From TrEMBL:
Reaction catalyzed: a very long-chain fatty acid + ATP + CoA = a very long-chain fatty acyl-CoA + AMP + diphosphate; tetracosanoate + ATP + CoA = tetracosanoyl-CoA + AMP + diphosphate; a long-chain fatty acid + ATP + CoA = a long-chain fatty acyl-CoA + AMP + diphosphate
Entry's family note: Belongs to the ATP-dependent AMP-binding enzyme family.
EC number: 6.2.1.3
Localisation: Cell membrane
Domain AMP-binding enzyme C-terminal: residue ranges: 502-575
Gene of this entry: slc27a6
One of the GO biological process terms: long-chain fatty acid import into cell
Main EC class the enzyme belongs to: ligase
Keyword Signal listed: no
Protein name per its UniProtKB record: long-chain-fatty-acid--CoA ligase
Organism: Cyclopterus lumpus (Lumpsucker)
UniProt membrane topology term: Multi-pass membrane protein
Length: 623
């Protein structure tokens, strides 16, 4: 008896000691394990479906939910409720129109240029039901960039929202010359060669088209093309497979959302966050989403209270806008318990918590086309995700040393890259493998190849280059530091400096341009700035430059600042030097070159004075 008691007390003492040791040395062990098991279980289910005939897509899941919960609200838009049945039947009508009037066939690609509205979803699902892949066009892109998007994804048909038809002014003739059908979400069209859809939808059957049309044999077949800016200038069509869509649709679920949640989606559907994670995640759960045409900081919390929102999607800039709103007594009167997004700065994160309550902010890191995803399931402020021994077994990534002045990775004497130490900042590379494939971009193998780094650590290996500088601390928490190369982020959009450079280069008085992003106090990302050299004998014309920029460049990509130089600095490899320009910023008191700022009221680029500079830092001047 004494022996048994001694054995039991020893066992309890051992277990208690192990628990204390685990708590002190590995405080996140069990939370990591449970989260990873949840994700792995979902991934295993997808892998198993690839080996069987039960290949299920996000659309299949939607059809299933429409049968299971037909009367449940799926989308609430502008105060009107659209149930799962409503969207199912209307997408059926569209599918029938696509087959009979538009005469689309399985395997074709169709471009969609629409703002956030229920018919965006109905058109998307209707196209998928007839077996078409869909290219989501960014509503900010214009002229040459818009034409380029058709060529790279091979779309022969365009569906445009009723409020965006005027965006085709200037390129409609080019579209028609290329034999591209243009259909508008209108009952009648003012242009004889722009065809109307709404009248045909009203007359169409709401019976489902044959399911065989949407059937697929491989989860790796493309379903969407989502355009992303990069170092090549013009937008790139990232290939989104059914596998990627299904993985993204599990995001809300992985963070603990349920079918009882109401999601608030104020982000544009043409981006993967709103469409793949937001809409896909709502469908996966059988939940309800409140879709906003455009984010409004003044309406945000009223919308959340009105519709009992519990989960919202964000980008860091969105949360800053909310914090900048006047304080009210109702700031913490809401049911929001969780936010899912990316790009949230530490200071804004803390202020958001202090102001609006202890809402769980779930940061997600991953690009549209990337093969790696980090999820901050712990909720540590200032981090984009968390890694551990088990995660590294499944997903191979590395942080390598990067020379910011030369704008290239550091190599050893044998030409291989060098890993950074824990806590150091390095370029994030993700190994391309069967477990983590990279599907690349449509229309050009060269674009896909440029995103890869080969022979990184050994001959023959291949890594996806994220273009992001990150740091991983001793506990495995990962922090975003900066972007490298020819892309920066502003207003929640990636800005391709090459594209802006080419557009500015068309101005008659500009000889050379170097576009880059600069940090602005109190703002996420980097504001566009261009160092320019004027042609001999010509001077900078602020009004003419303003007209050119506002006509041909999307609002988020326009250079807010101009630096007029006499000589453009170059690197040793004859690339334009950006590092020093980025570091020097836009302070007129420390820069001897003439500086100008974009002024919408005067419709010109005007001299950047010390007083204007101070008003920008104080947040008094809107950028």
């Amino acid at each position: 008896m004494t022996l048994s008691l001694g054995w039991l007390s020893g066992l309890f003492a051992g277990l208690f000691s192990a628990h204390v040791l685990q708590t002190l040395c590995f405080p996140y062990f069990w939370r990591d394990i449970f989260f990873l098991l949840k994700v792995v279980r979902y991934g295993a289910r997808l892998e198993l479906s690839k080996l069987t005939s039960s290949v299920r897509t996000v659309l299949d899941r939607f059809v299933q939910q429409a049968r299971r919960i037909p009367d449940k609200p799926f989308v609430i838009y502008d105060g009107r409720v659209h149930t799962y049945r409503d969207v199912e039947l209307r997408s059926n009508r569209l599918a029938n129109v696509f087959l009979e009037a538009v005469k689309l066939r399985k395997g074709e690609c169709v471009a969609l240029l629409m703002n956030n509205e229920p018919d965006f979803l109905c058109a998307w699902f209707g196209l998928a039901k007839v077996g078409c892949s869909v290219a989501f066009l960014n509503t900010n892109i214009k002229s040459k960039a818009l034409l380029h998007c058709f060529h790279c994804c091979g779309a022969r048909t365009l569906i445009v929202g009723s409020d965006l038809v005027e965006c085709l002014d200037g390129i409609l003739s080019s579209l028609l010359e290329d034999n591209i059908q243009v259909w508008a979400m209108k009952s009648q069209s003012e242009h004889p060669q722009v065809l109307s859809l709404l009248d045909k939808i009203d007359a169409a059957s709401d019976q489902p088209v044959p399911a065989v049309l949407r059937a697929i044999t491989s989860l790796k077949s493309p379903t969407l093309y989502i355009f992303t800016s990069g170092t090549t200038g013009l937008p790139k069509a990232a290939v989104i497979t059914h596998l990627q869509s299904l993985k993204a649709a599990a995001g809300f679920w992985a963070f603990g959302a349920t079918e009882d949640d109401v999601m608030y989606i104020p982000l544009p559907l043409y981006h993967s966050a709103a469409s793949l994670i937001g809409i896909g995640g709502t469908i996966e759960l059988g939940a309800t989403c409140v879709l906003k045409k455009k984010f409004s900081a003044s309406q945000f919390w009223n919308d959340c209270r009105k519709h009992d929102v519990t989960v919202f999607q964000y980008i860091g800039e969105l949360c800053r806008y909310l914090c900048n709103q006047p304080k009210t007594a109702k700031d913490q009167v809401h049911k929001v318990r969780m936010g899912v997004g990316n790009g949230l700065r530490q200071d804004v994160w803390r202020e958001f918590h202090s102001r609006f309550g202890n809402i769980k902010m779930c940061e997600v890191y991953g690009s549209t086309e990337g093969n790696l995803c980090f999820m901050n399931h712990i909720g540590r402020i200032g981090t984009v995700g968390r890694s551990n021994f088990f995660y590294r077994l499944l997903f191979k990534y590395d942080l390598v040393k990067y020379d910011m002045v030369k704008d290239e990775p550091v190599t050893d004497p044998y030409g291989f890259y060098q890993r950074v130490e824990k806590g150091e900042t390095g370029l994030l590379l993700s190994k391309v493998s069967t477990m983590s494939p990279f599907f690349g971009y449509a229309g050009s193998k060269q674009l896909t190849e440029r995103k890869l780094k080969r022979n990184v650590f050994v001959k023959g290996d291949a890594y996806f280059n994220t273009g992001d500088l990150m740091a991983e601390d001793q506990e495995g928490f990962i922090c975003f530091r900066d972007r490298v190369g020819d892309t920066f982020r502003w207003k929640g959009e990636n800005v391709a400096t090459t594209e802006v450079t080419e557009t500015l280069g068309l101005v008659d008085f500009i000889q050379e341009v170097n576009v880059y992003g600069v940090e602005v106090q109190g703002h996420e990302g980097r504001a566009g700035m261009a160092a320019v050299i004027a042609r001999p004998g010509l001077v900078l014309d602020g009004r003419k430059l303003f007209e050119h920029v506002t006509r041909d460049i999307p609002a988020y990509a326009r250079p807010l600042f101009i630096r007029l130089q006499e000589v453009m600095e170059m690197t040793s490899t004859f690339k334009q030097q950006k590092f020093q320009l980025v570091q020097s910023g836009f302070n007129p008191s420390t820069i001897s070159d003439p500086l100008y700022v974009l002024d919408y009221q005067q419709e010109s680029y005007i001299p950047l004075t010390d007083s204007i500079y101070r008003s920008i830092l104080a947040g008094e001047r809107k950028l």
